[in-house]
Amino acid sequence: MKAIVYTQYGSPEVLTLTNVEKPIPKSNEILIRIKATAVNSGDVRLRKADPFAVRLFFGLFKPKKEILGSVFSGEIESVGSAVQRFKVGDDVFGHTDMSFGTYAEYKCFPENGSIALKPTTISHNEAAAISFGGVTALHFLKKASIQHGQKVIVVGASGAVGSAAVQLAKHFGAIVTGVCSTANVALVKSLGADKVIDYTKEDFTKNEEMYDVIFDSVNKMSLSDSLGSLKIYGTLILSAAGLSKTLNGARISMTSNKKIKVLTGMISHSSDDINFLKKLIELGQLKPVIDKTYPMEQMVEAHTYVEKGHKKGNVAIEIN
Fold this sequence. Notes:
The protein is of the alpha/beta class. Helices cover 28% and strands 27% of the residues. The protein is built from 9 helices and 15 strands. The chain has helices spanning 41-48, 54-58, 124-143, 160-171, 185-190, 223-226, 243-255, 271-283, 299-307; strands at residues 2-5, 16-19, 29-39, 71-79, 91-95, 106-110, 114-117, 151-155, 175-180, 195-198, 211-216, 230-238, 261-263, 290-295, 314-318.
């Protein structure tokens, strides 16, 4: 099968299209013929080994996992002997977590993993795209125990995680403010945000508004400045934080006189979460946002674009 492989860390050019052995499903696995995946910020960080701590978990000198990609949508081609939840021909979508491997034509996946039947109302490109931002935003909003009527502000509201966070927070009944650039104001409004702040014209930390939850999805917010906009017992979500900001967040959690809860770190998810996203998609309460779509053969160009940090929502990759 064809796959995008990288054997060293570096620029987008380390990604090469090559032929590798097609996987064979174990008894509890399904074999998915992947129709679409997506390039996310996490893929870029792993490819670059940036921050350096990436190497401690994924290979000190070279990548242990040579095929990136954590989200997928496709069709089940075969199933293991013990599989009961799915059948050949089912269209499915999901998130592989740390097993990666979706920059390829085929992927074996356990039937009890973070996977669900694809909504019939969206394409494979859209289904693959929604998984990364959807599960990330859902993980943190659930940990924040978001409540109906709370005021939530999402920084980076037009990105993959931010666009999902705006929609999910609205689903949970929050009053949502989105922060984005001028070019993305209309997009964020269309996602259901009650208010949109153009960060090129206004600094939300200086407008005296107070929030129950501040969700920084892009790691571009000043922690010290944002604390003044957080209510007592408020929650600060740092979904894209690096090591230094993670440590700083832990310090704030322990020392803040506002009793602030700071959420960061790795996400966790399950098939229940993917099915939850599926339900919201079918209800029209969660819409995938796709900026650009590239064929598999243009993965270098896709990574180059994502690395610039200006994408709206997601960058989808058509596999076949």
